[in-house]
Amino acid sequence: xxxxxxxxxxxxxxxxxxxxxxxxxxxxxxxxxxxxxxxxxxxxxxxxxxxxxxxxxxxxxxxxxxxxxxxxxxxxxxxxxxxxxxxxxxxxxxxxxxxxxxxxxxxxxxxxxxxxxxxxxxxxxxxxxxxxxxxxxxxx
Length: 140
What we know:
By secondary structure, this protein is α/β, with parallel strands linked by helices. 39% of the residues lie in helices and 20% in strands. It has helices at 13-24, 41-46, 59-62, 71-80, 82-89, 105-119, and strands at residues 7-12, 33-38, 54-56, 94-100, 124-129. The protein has a five-stranded parallel β-sheet with strand order 3-2-1-4-5. Helix 5 (82-89) crosses helix 6 (105-119). The model has no long low-confidence stretch (mean pLDDT 89).
């Protein structure tokens, strides 16, 4: 059996980072490498994984302030960090992505991440959630 550390789980955006925080508390989490990617520095600070596994996307122009539910800003921020993402993920045999489609970092960034794993021919699974009705009307 191959080394289970060759599987990465990546949380993107606030929702994804929360999921990664919860996964990190499980005993089985040691079998995976966990990453958190967001445009919001506060969200990353709250994520319970080692800081070397966190990526503040678009830090040079978003300045850690998030993308405010703007999928285009999320896409640009994640795309601006593409080389870091490629370095982060290229050695894995499989990647699981998790996030929420609330019009922010994950909504804009998941297509970029999809192209990264496609380029490196890494099998990937995307587990995403839709916003709850109580969170307001979707612009999509």
